[in-house]
Fold:
Amino acid sequence: MTNVATKFVRRPTGRRTGASTPSGWWALAFIAPATIGLVVLYLWPFLSTLIKSFQDVPAFGPATFVGIENYTTLIGDGDFWKAFGNSALYTAIILLGIPLAIALAALIEQVGRGRSIYRVLFFLPVVTLPVAIGMVWRFIYNGDFGLLNYVLSWFGVDGQFWVADPRFTIFAFGVVGIWMGLGINLIILGAGLQAIPKALYEASALDGAGRVRQFFHITVPLLSPSIFFVTILNVIAALQMFDLIFIMLRGVNNTALADSKTIVYLFYEKAFVQFHQGYGAAIAIVLLIVIMIATALQFRLQRSWVFYG
Amino acid sequence: MAESIVRRTPGPRWRGKPTTTWPIHVILIGASVFMVVPFVWQILTLFKTTAEVTRVPPTILPGDLSLHSFETFFSTVPFWSMFAVSTGSLALRVVGQIVVAALAGYAFARIPFRGRNVLFGLFIVMLMVPSQLFLIGQYELVRDLGLLDTLPALAIPGLFSAFGTFLMRQAFLTMPKDYEEAARLDGANTFQVFWYVMLPMARPMLAALAVLTGLYSWNDLLWPLIVSPSGENRPLPVGLAGLQGQFGTDYPTLMAGAFVCSIPLVVVFLVLQRQFFAGIASSGLKG
Structure:
């Protein structure tokens, strides 16, 4: 964000005042659609969610102010804490996909021929409907005749009901989540890899460094800003996981749903299925706080591991 | 290792002899198999009969290429209407995003006006708030306008985004001012400068924004689910989810549906690969 600041500072053209000047009118015309959009579609809905979180909002009839009651109910709600734990677990599993993405990005960068084919293959899940992905994986995970159990049986491993058994559900979703997100992570990390000066590899090769050493002593440190960015994106996306639960559990009335809800799923259920919008709003506000804390934590931690050349 | 400098080929980047890439290919092909197996399994399944699919152990290849699954899918699901709804919503969103974000992005980058920094700060703040925080308010807006179960309802929240505005502002900031000043000397007004000079130069970023918007619009499930309570005017994700409720264990039909509904975007991606990758990479500007 530092370059944003400098752009603000250096502005040689004369600063005009108000909308009375020609430049002011132009600015108004250019900015009006976006500002209306911001206020109507984002700012007001956001404030409305904030206000509702302090109200009891029945499906029909007027809302009443209840102070922090929604929040106190939330803190005492076992379902919420279960959803919170599930979201945290899912996010932790998704994070395991990042070292995998780094390794694959570095490998793809090293091949000459076939690089674009690999990129396309890894990107396919990104352009496939998440609903379709959920359906296919539900079938693969099926405990009776799923492909996964069949493959495991070759190695003498007992099959499981990967989705229907709440002990495994979140882990099963985590694998799908990693599989779905790999393509995006690879593109962002690949762009970061291409920015690393080749001369560093040549110089270190002259000093006798092998590929593995180069990877850990050049690639990883110089890629760390991209890794940091990918981590931020993945955590935010993982904390908002919804689609897979809806498709693999709710849509088919799977009983594992009760134990496998995430924060956003719980929000959807409260606000738009049961229409307890006040309580739903409180969940959304808590989600915002969780995401803000997770992001702030990462910005704090980055000082110890992200290398800005 | 010293000879690597001398023998460097233009393709691969930081290694010695070009012949040593095969272990890398082995690893990457292994990983690719993991990526592709679900798709292959989906396609094999949609040619099978329900009896074949529920057999233990599973049969890998379909016995006789049954097209029954496609018949069931197309006869029970209004695919073309769903496709039209998805495409219409995507088109409205992409056009809206491009027009609104390009105009605002240009003003934020180039037209000085009072309160600009404060207003832009507000955009940045909204950029960081997760989308669920807006859903209740957006739902009420659409409901109060009487638009539930309509195409506009699907498109409305996506007509504009703080992210698009931010992206376009960044694009205009990086452009040289010389062209603009030359056009002004020739008597062009602000809109003419924007339309004839700046916008054409911003085309790559507009394409990136279009791809990101389109991808999000096409794949989104939660918003369409909320604003299509009756199931009329459903886009593909909602319709496909409904199919699953109806045909819970008829896996060939489900796989046929998943396949047919996913194909349009996959084809677009294969044609516009470069724009997709550039779009995703440009989202990295967000940091």
